[in-house]
Amino acid sequence: MQTRTLGTQGLTTSAIGYGSMGISMAYGTSDAHGDVAISAAFDAGITHFDTAELYGWGENEEILGKAVAPFRDEVVIATKFGFTPDFGFNSRPDHIRQVVKNSLRFLGTDRIDVLYQHRVDPTVPIEDVAGTVKELIDAGDVKYFGLSEAGADTIRRAHEVHPVSVLQTEYSLFERDVEQLFPLLHDLGIGLVSYSPLGRGFLTGTVKPAGQYDEHDMRNTDPRWQPGNFEKNLAATEQLQHLAESLGVTVGQLALAWVLAQDDHIVPIPGSRDPRRVAENAAAAGLALTSALLEQITRILPSGGFGARYTAENMPVWQ
Ligand SMILES: NC(=O)c1ccc[n+]([C@@H]2O[C@H](COP(=O)([O-])OP(=O)(O)OC[C@H]3O[C@@H](n4cnc5c(N)ncnc54)[C@H](OP(=O)(O)O)[C@@H]3O)[C@@H](O)[C@H]2O)c1
């Protein structure tokens, strides 16, 4: 698989990464074995694996750490701190140090390649957060600094204390807001990790209306799945599907190739618990879209999907 650089501090990974959140949260329960999907990702050329404390309070990191152990030195592990179990925020320096200790133990590794602040904590100055991450980098526990769902001011201030290598936020044909930050990311030399690049699965065409998912599946309340939005998003996905079929690829592959085509310093991290889907997603790295095709795609979805990306109470506030 092709590689991409993220930031100017030396972080290089496969052009498509793997997000492990769905193994233990967000999309309902499953009999699938996360470790099998992770091994399939590595076999398909993926060297970038994303997890977080939040995704299971150790469980998700443990699954990922065990699965990548046979090839640990060939991959990049990214994890995140900053949530509390009741979805509040905590980025106090002592807490960050403790979470990193825990994550290293759960992951069974001696270093975290990318450490993200998962959400900006309005009660802790970002300079204190960046300073703490810098200490952890100087100590060798962490290699690169990342921010998730941060706005321009936070990115600039953090970057002054320690260079930020990567911003992670939702980015897909359904979600384009982060494009307003592209000039800043270019100026500062910061890469972008695009999360939910398949629109939480909508852009694969395998969706059901809200209410028909497992009771623990967040898509039951996702605005894009609610009546009114769901039908419009489905109609757009069907049009994309026709286009994908004419190219001999899947609509999910088309959606991932579209993300990759927006900039050379973007790495999407689709998640799947199914090894065959993981391989399908990875293969999208080899799909180059002409500017005519990119235009056709953008005509179908000129400014993203219908409906907000989170419910109002969970919507991240960029600051
Ligand atoms: N920083 C943050 O705040 C944040 C927030 C959300 C996510 N993330 C990260 O981003 C990663 C990816 O995002 P995501 O998991 O939310 O969304 P996603 O990758 O856009 O979509 C995942 C969903 O799509 C399905 N899927 C994946 N590939 C498929 C395929 N080829 N065909 C059909 N269905 C397919 C998966 O189901 P199956 O598992 O059943 O295949 C799953 O339900 C996460 O795992 C996490 O690491 C970060």
Automatic annotation (TrEMBL):
Gene3D superfamilies attached to this UniProt entry: NADP-dependent oxidoreductase domain
Keywords on record: Oxidoreductase
InterPro entries per the UniProt record, alphabetical: Aldo-Keto_reductase (IPR050791), NAD(P)_OxRdtase_dom_sf (IPR036812), NADP_OxRdtase_dom (IPR023210)
Domain NADP-dependent oxidoreductase: 16-300
The organism's place on the tree of life at top rank: Bacteria
PANTHER family: AFLATOXIN B1 ALDEHYDE REDUCTASE, ALDO-KETO REDUCTASE 1-RELATED
Protein name as it appears in the record: Aldo/keto reductase
Organism: Microbacterium pullorum
